């Protein structure tokens, strides 16, 4: 078990004046953390002022860069052996923070997995379920909550993957899959999320394309061949079957059959190259 005095708590926050003060106060009362760092991501309200008043160390971005950028700033400035990342909207309970930290040491990454009922809207639940299913297929293990921002990890391991982390909202997704891909010990602790304070920064219409890009990013970075190979096999099987049918019925092979078989070869080769690039990302890490 990690000693709380060795844990730096990192709280990314953007316009969270309503929640940040009580959150920092709850965290300070929960345990004797090494430090509590609030990264104010260019807020236009009193987020930074209220965080300082509550007893946090505040690092300010001069403008809004994104949740992922705030998390990276917090990791770079953390001085504890472990980092606990807590969303700044008041959803996470201090008792759950202690439960996550209690697993650190034995595990390199501990993720607070929200129950389905405590996740926001039906659209968000559907999107998260789709990502969980895709991640489970790519990693060949069950992943109950890929997008939870509530997580603790060894600081040195998080710093290995800073170059992979995006500035937007897919940082939890990337860190979870990166730790699994690198062979680190990863576990999920069930938690109950509270109703967030203030307004969510995610909008379905605006962020729908970002959701699709997250899926493509997951596929191409972590296990591209597990996606490209089935597509290649399906194209080859369809082309070969159509060729056999046309030979039997028309005594020749059609262009469509040839194109499907060529497509299967191209898709396979692209997947193979992508897999090699993916492996190099992890083999070259320090």
Explain briefly what this protein structure is.
The protein has 286 residues and is an alpha/beta fold. It has helices at residues 17-30, 47-54, 67-77, 94-103, 122-139, 155-160, 171-181, 204-222, 225-250, 255-283; strands spanning 7-13, 35-40, 57-60, 82-85, 109-114, 151-154, 186-191.
Q: What report would you give on this structure?
A:
With 286 residues, the protein is α/β, with parallel strands linked by helices. It folds into 2 domains: 4-222, Spore Coat Polysaccharide Biosynthesis Protein SpsA, Chain A; 225-283. Helix content is 53%, strand content 13%. It is built from 10 helices and 7 strands. It has a 7-stranded mixed sheet with strand order 3-2-1-4-6-5-7, sandwiched between helices. Helix 1 (17-30) links the parallel strand 1 (7-13) and strand 2 (35-40).
Fold topology:
Elements: E1 7-13, H1 17-30, E2 35-40, H2 47-54, E3 57-60, H3 67-77, E4 82-85, H4 94-103, E5 109-114, H5 122-139, E6 151-154, H6 155-160, H7 171-181, E7 186-191, H8 204-222, H9 225-250, H10 255-283
Parallel strand pairs: 1-2, 1-4, 2-3, 5-7
Antiparallel strand pairs: 4-6, 5-6
Helix pairs in contact: 1-2, 1-4, 5-8, 9-10
**CATH architecture assignment of the largest domain:** Alpha-Beta Complex
Low confidence ranges = none
Helix content: 40-55%
Would you tell me which CATH topology of the largest domain applies?
Spore Coat Polysaccharide Biosynthesis Protein SpsA, Chain A
Strand order of the largest sheet: 3-2-1-4-6-5-7
> How many β-strand runs?
7
Give the helix tally. Answer: 10
Largest sheet: 7 strands, mixed
- Alpha-carbon distance between the two ends: 25 Å
């Amino acid at each position: 078990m990690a000693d709380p005095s060795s844990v730096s708590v990192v709280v990314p926050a953007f316009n969270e004046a309503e929640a940040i003060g009580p959150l920092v106060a709850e965290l300070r009362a929960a345990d004797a953390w090494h430090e509590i760092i609030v990264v104010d991501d260019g807020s236009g309200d009193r987020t930074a002022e209220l965080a300082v008043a509550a007893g946090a160390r505040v690092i300010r971005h001069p403008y809004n860069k994104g949740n992922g950028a705030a998390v990276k700033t917090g990791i770079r400035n953390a001085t504890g052996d472990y980092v606990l990342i807590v969303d700044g909207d008041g959803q996470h309970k201090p008792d759950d923070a202690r439960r996550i930290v209690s697993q650190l040491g034995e595990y390199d990454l501990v993720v607070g997995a929200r129950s389905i009922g405590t996740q926001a809207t039906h659209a968000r639940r559907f999107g998260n379920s789709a990502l969980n299913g895709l991640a489970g297929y790519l990693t060949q293990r069950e992943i109950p909550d890929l997008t939870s921002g509530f997580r603790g990890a060894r600081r040195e391991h998080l710093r290995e993957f800073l170059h992979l982390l995006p500035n937007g909202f897919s940082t939890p997704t990337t860190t979870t899959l990166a730790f699994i891909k690198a062979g680190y010990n990863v576990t999920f602790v069930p938690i109950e999320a509270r109703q967030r304070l203030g307004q969510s920064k995610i909008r379905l219409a605006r962020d729908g394309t970002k959701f699709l890009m997250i899926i493509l990013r997951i596929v191409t970075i972590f296990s591209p061949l597990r996606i490209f190979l089935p597509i290649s096999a399906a194209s080859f099987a369809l082309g070969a079957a159509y060729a056999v049918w046309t030979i039997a019925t028309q005594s020749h092979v059609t262009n469509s059959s040839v194109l499907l078989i060529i497509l299967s070869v191209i898709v396979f080769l692209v997947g193979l190259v992508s897999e090699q690039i993916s492996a190099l990302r992890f083999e070259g890490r320090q």
